[in-house]
Amino acid sequence: LLPANETFSGHIKQLADEGEGYAVVYRKDDKFEGGVEDLVSMNQLNDAELARNLRAKFKDHVGWVRCGPTLVAMNLKAGYQIDWEFGDGDVIKAYPTHDSLLEKFKNLKSRNDAPPHAWALASEAYQNLFRPLNAVHTKFDQSLIITGESGAGKTWNTKQILKFLSYVGQSDLTEKMLATTPILEGFGNANMPRNPDSSRFGKLYQVFFSKSTQALTACSINPYMLEKSRVSAQQRSERNFHMFYRMLCPPRDIMDIDDVKGKSTLEKRVEEANDILDKEKRFTVAKGAVCKEGEVTYWEEGGKKMLGLPQSKKDMCKLGKFEDYVYLRGGTKMDQQDFLRIYEDLPADWGPDGGAGSVPNQDPRIYDDAMHMSHTLAALYGFFTEDEVDQILKTTAGVLHLGNVEILGQDDDDECEGVNMSGASGTALETAAELWKVDAGALATACCKQTIWMGGAEDNTKQIAAKGGRDGGIILRDTVARFVYDKLFMFIVAKCSNLLAENKGRDDVFLGVLDIFGFEFYENAQLQPMDGAVVNGLDQLNINICNEMLQPVSYTHLTLPTKRIV
C-alpha cells in the first residue's frame, strides 16, 4: 500500500527486483483511522484496503462490517465484550450476542442507527414485512441469503437471525421452532477439517408473521441436497454425521460436559449445571410436545445426572462400540488407511502430520456427544411419538449395521458374487433387516443385484448381478445405506416443518432465511491419507456450482433497484 500522497514511480521497479512474478501496488486510504463500518464508504476502494479494514475490525473484536446492503461476517465467536454504540447515543458494553442487545436492535428505525450486526439486518428485514409498498419496496415478503466458504459461520449466523425473529415475534411457536436446531444439526451436520459442526445440507426457513399482530405464526423448513455420500465414506480429519456418534457414545455425567467443567470453581460448576437443567431446561421435553411433555431425557445413576442414549435404547438398536462400524472408519475403501479416526473429543494439536494447512489452528474439538444426544432426544419427543422416535433410532442404527455387510468377489471380476451370509457379515445383515422391518433375503439382494426394466409392462423386470465385481456390490450396498438415511432425514424435516406450519394464515407474510451449503476445495496434498487421494466428490461439486450460480442472482437483485432509481 502506497501512502495517499506518493506516486507509483520507483516502487514497481523495487518490487520487481525481489524475484519472479508480479505485484500490484494500491494506494492507501488517508482517512482510514481504524477502519470503517461500511466498506462502500472507503475513499480508496481496492483489495488491499478492503483486507486492511477487515483485519483492523477483526483485531478490535468486531463481528461484522457492512458492504452496502450486504453484511460481511467475521470473528463470530470472539469471547469479548465491546462497546455497542447506537444512533440514539446509547452505549451498551456486552458480548456480541448477549440478550441485553435484543431490544435495542428490535426498535431500530434504520440499520445505520446501530453497529453492523446480524440482528440489525434481521431487524430491517422484519420491519420491511409491514412497511407500505413503494417504488423500491415492492413486496412485503423478505429474504436473507447466507453464503460463504465451508466453516465461515453461515449456520451460526442463521441461528442468530432465528433467535432474533423468535424474540420480536414472540408466540407459542417460538420455543418449538428453535427446538428443531438440535434435530437438524444431529442428523445433518458433521465434523470437517475447518469446522467441527459443519452443515452438510442447505435449508430454507420461511418464517411467517401475522400482518395485523406482527407475531410469529408458522415456520416451514425446506432442506436441499443432503451430502448423503458421507454416510458410507469420509476423508481424513472428518467424521460421519453427528447422530451416529451421539447414539454410540458412553453416558457422561453432566458435571463433565464442556459447558460445566470449564467453570473455575466447583460452586460455579454446580450453578451452571443447575441452570442448564432448571432454567434452560435443555433436557426437558417442552410444553406442547407430541409426547412425554415435561419429562427429562437424563437419568440418575450413583448420585449423578447422566446424559446420553439410555442403555435400553442402545440394546434396542443392537449397538456396540465406535470401532465396530466400517462406516465410522472412513468406509470400505478407507478403513485400512492409516490415519486418525475421530470418535470423541480431541485435544489441541490433533491435526494430521504434514497436514496442518488444512486444520489452521488445530484447537481442541469438543463434541459433547452425550450431552447433545439427550438434547436431541428431548427435541425429537416434541415432534414425534415415542414409537416414531424409536423407529428413527432403529433406522439410523440399521445404516451402521448395513455397512458391516461383506460383499463377496474380487475387484477385477465381471460380476459381484453376492453377500457373505455367515459370521459377522450375516449377523450385520440380519440386524439391519430386523431394525428396518424388511426381509433379510430381499435386503441382501438389493446389496448385490440390480433390477433392470426390460420394456413393456411395468413389472417386466429382471435382476442381474452388479457389474464391476466386488466394487460393484459395494457401490450397491452403500447406495442402499445412503438412500435410507436420506429418506429418513427428509421424513424428519418434513414432519417438523408440517407441525410448525399448521397454523399459517392466508394473509401472513414471510421472511425467508436461506442457509446455503458452503463451497470448498481441498488439494490432495493437504489431506492425503497415505496413498488415498482426497478430492471433492460429486456432492461438493454440485454445492460449489450452486454457490457460483447464486452470486449473479444476488448481484442482480441488489443492483437492479439502484439502477431503476438512477
Please give a structural write-up:
With 566 residues, this protein is of the alpha+beta class. Helices cover 38% and strands 14% of the residues. Strands 5-17-8-9 form a four-stranded mixed sheet. The protein has a three-stranded antiparallel sheet with strand order 10-12-11. Helix 7 runs antiparallel to helix 16 (469-501). The chain is globular and about 75 Å long. The two termini are 33 Å apart. Residues 10-18, 354-358, 524-532 and 562-566 have low confidence and may be disordered.
Describe the structure concisely.
It is built from 18 helices and 17 strands. By secondary structure, the chain is an alpha+beta fold.
Describe the SSE topology:
Elements lengths: L10 H6 L30 H13 L4 E4 L2 E4 L8 E4 L5 E4 L7 H5 L11 H11 L13 E5 L7 H15 L5 H5 L1 H9 E4 L2 E5 L2 E8 L6 E9 L17 H7 L3 E2 L4 H4 L4 H14 L19 E3 L2 E4 L3 H7 L51 H12 L5 H17 L4 E2 L9 E2 L3 H14 L3 H9 E5 L7 E5 L3 H33 L7 E7 L8 H4 L10 H28 L1
Parallel strand pairs: 5-17
Antiparallel strand pairs: 1-2, 3-4, 6-7, 8-9, 8-17, 10-12, 11-12, 13-14, 15-16
Helix pairs in contact: 4-5, 7-8, 7-12, 7-16, 8-12, 13-14, 13-16
